Amino acid sequence: MRQAAMRQNRMEYLPLWAGQGSARIRPMPAARLVQILAEELQSILQDAIIPRSSW
């Protein structure tokens, strides 16, 4: 079905996977997204070195 839709340029028949989290999408500048990702990564790495449960 996908290939037939592509040949006919019928995008409404293509599976466009968004996932369950798509409702949480919010617009933001790319720089802000990178900042958030960096902060989250730093938090994860700190937890890997010194788990928060031992604080």
Q: What's the gist of this structure?
A:
The chain is mainly α and 55 residues long. The protein has two helices and no strands.
Structure description:
The chain is an all-alpha fold and 55 residues long. It has a domain at 27-55. 47% of the residues lie in helices and 0% in strands. It is built from 2 helices and no strands. The chain has helices at 2-7, 30-49. It is elongated, with a radius of gyration of 20 Å. The relative contact order is 0.08. The model has no long low-confidence stretch (mean pLDDT 85).
Poorly predicted parts = none
Structure classification = mainly alpha
Biggest sheet overview: none
**How far do the termini sit from each other?**
55 Å
Q: Tell how many strands the DSSP assignment holds.
A: 0
| Count of alpha/pi helices | 2
Strand content: under 5%
What form results from the Cα inertia axes?
elongated
Average pLDDT taken over every residue: 85
Gyration radius, to the nearest Å? 20 Å
Q: What string, H for helix and E for strand, traces the elements in order?
A: HH
List keywords for this structure.
47% helix; single chain; elongated
Topology overview:
Blueprint: H1 2-7, H2 30-49
